[in-house]
Specification:
Layout lengths: L13 E3 L4 E5 L10 E5 L5 E3 L7 H10 L9 E3 L5 H4 L2 H7 L4 E5 L3 H5 L2 H11 L2 H5 L11 E4 L2 E7 L2 E7 L8 E5 L4 E5 L4 E2 L6 E2 L9 H14 L3 E4 L3 E3 L2 H25 L3 H11 L13 H11 L1 H18 L12
Parallel strand pairs: 4-5, 5-6, 6-7, 11-14
Antiparallel strand pairs: 1-2, 2-3, 3-4, 8-9, 9-10, 10-11, 12-13, 14-15
The structure holds zinc ion.
The site of zinc ion has 6 residues, from helix 2.
Length: 333
């Protein structure tokens, strides 16, 4: 298993990142460049993120190509239980029967019994659910280990992956630092990184998005001072400080714009239009290899509608906590 893999001979979709670390494109819905898993191929091989149920065979084949057989995989960690990150957990657990599944404690029961999660996903996605995600299958609860504020995964040889609770995008979200490299697996805490433009766009979906938690999680990441940021969407980023700053500024800008739109009108479409005009128009158009289909799937997954709905939901929660009615159009005149 420790034979060196020739980086020039890797199957397409696998990128060697040094220090026994590999990025694996799990080809969400068949398209490249949307969801990335990572393999740390140490004595105790560990996969971070599995992608959707539809991605499980892609991930299995990639792991086999990297010399990780069915009984070799020691650990699977997911940053959170959204289906583009954890939808394949049940299938991967069945394909790799020795692997322990590590997840934040607020997500653990949904991996053991996904019925409720799948019902609410079906309500959000309707018919698109099958094409985009497939079915999250249950994982035997004895194979699931939950982590709280922090946790550890033993990678062997003294190397560890340390998890940090980082809510904001989701209330069951963790970031993970590799003790040997300083690589930080950020999940969706920063949003979505586009390599062709360098833009980072927030991911603020309902029902959990919380600006204050999201900003606190980014500050925690800054304190960790990682070597690289490993995005689930998509890939490794070396401009750490700049990208963390951008992510923070973008979050504030999206929230401010939605707040302002809702002082004119409670209509979500109005807020979406304003975000497109003021915020998204600043992003450079993607170029090169990024396929139009991949961009479309990414827009469905984490685009203006989902982000605005999540921000609006959070603003309503904040207003309710302050004992006010949800915001309504400002009185004029
Ligand atoms: Zn995601």
């Amino acid at each position: 298993m420790h034979d060196d893999v020739d980086p020039n001979a890797l199957p397409s979709g696998i990128t060697a990142l040094g220090d026994d670390t590999y990025a694996i494109d799990t080809r969400m819905a068949g398209y490249p460049g949307i969801t990335s898993s990572y393999l740390i191929r140490t004595e105790r091989p560990c996969v971070i993120e599995v992608g959707t149920a539809g991605s499980a065979p892609v991930l299995r084949d990639a792991l086999h190509a990297l010399g990780v057989g069915a009984r070799d995989l020691a650990t699977v960690v997911v940053t959170h239980i959204h289906l583009d990150h954890a939808g394949g957990v049940g299938d991967i657990a069945a394909m790799f029967p020795e692997a322990e599944i590590v997840v934040h404690e607020r997500g653990a029961r949904h991996l053991a019994d996904p019925a409720r999660l799948m019902r609410s996903a079906r309500m959000v996605w309707g018919d698109k659910l099958d094409v985009l995600f497939g079915d999250l299958r249950p994982t035997d609860a004895v194979r699931i280990r939950s982590v709280a504020d922090t946790g550890e995964v033993d990678l062997g040889g003294g190397r560890r992956l340390v998890s940090h609770y980082t809510p904001g995008h989701a209330k069951h979200h963790v970031g993970l630092v590799d003790s040997a490299t300083g690589d930080l697996y950020v999940g969706d805490a920063l949003g979505v990184y586009n390599h062709s433009t360098g833009d980072v766009r927030p991911a603020t979906p309902p029902p959990d998005f919380d600006l204050d938690s999201a900003l606190a999680s980014l500050r925690l990441f800054g304190d960790i001072a990682p070597r690289r940021l490993m995005f689930s969407h998509f890939g490794a980023v070396e401009t750490v400080g700049e990208t963390l700053d951008n992510a923070q500024q973008e979050l504030r800008l999206w929230v401010e714009t939605v707040r302002e739109a809702r002082s004119d009108s409670p209509d979500l479409d109005h807020a979406v239009a304003m975000v497109r005009e003021r915020v998204m128009s600043r992003y450079r158009p993607a170029t090169g290899a990024a396929s139009a289909e991949s961009a479309e799937v990414m827009e469905v997954l984490s685009g203006a509608h989902s982000n605005v709905a999540g921000i609006a939901h959070w603003l309503d929660r904040v207003a309710a906590d302050q004992g006010e009615a949800p915001s309504r159009p400002a009185e004029r005149g």
